Amino acid sequence: MSYFENFMKANKAYVDLHGTAHLPINPKTKVAIVTCMDSRLHVAQALGLALGDAHILRNAGGRVTEDMIRSLVISQQQLGTREIVVLHHTDCGAQTFKNEDFTAYLHKELGVDVSEQDFLPFTDVEESVREDMALLRQSPLIPADIKISGAVYDVDTGRMTVVEE
User: Which residues hold Zn(2+) (predicted)?
Assistant: First the structure.
């Protein structure tokens, strides 16, 4: 049995818990969370969020990219969010490589030249949060009155630590 088949079985049980209530499209807390795709980070549980509470935007490293800003603009301008939380984590895969080495690896393995691509690796997780918060503040698409906060999630303990600018 594939993982997908297992997911479909689990979904049947989830449907019973979910119920039939129609949640509003706008997130209840008016918060959008920018975070990593890491499977050790269950954002809703870690932050005490329920269905419909917040937008959770994920990518490799939880980095602020052009597409992340696109999603945030829609989140704010169409769906009413007024706060952004940048949440990175310890022991991130984006800390395990450098662009030059990774692009060389991809060229060797896939035969594709991606030397111009920035995969946004980092070495210091707190600094990466600060960089991403600064990118959000500098974006003309993110209004100045949007509250922006940052934190680091510890994958070993589940504890979050605030990152000051």
Answer: 36, 38, 89, 92
pLDDT for 125 beyond 80: yes
* CATH code of the domain in which 151 resides: 3.40.1050.10
| Residue 38 assigned as binding residue | yes
For residue range 8-34, list pLDDT tens digits in order: 999 988 888 777 888 899 999 999 999
Assess if residue 2 is contained within a domain.
no
Q: Is 91 annotated as a binding residue?
A: no
The reply, when asked if residue 36 is annotated as ligand binding, is yes
Using a 10 angstrom Cβ sphere, with 0-12 exposed, 13-18 middle and 19 or more buried, the burial of residue 58 is: middle
Residue 51: give the domain boundaries: 25-162
Within-domain flag for 142 = yes
List pLDDT tens digits, range 58-106.
999 999 999 999 999 999 999 999 999 999 999 999 999 999 999 999 9
Q: How many domains does the chain have?
A: 1
The answer to the question of whether 154 is labelled as a binding residue is: no
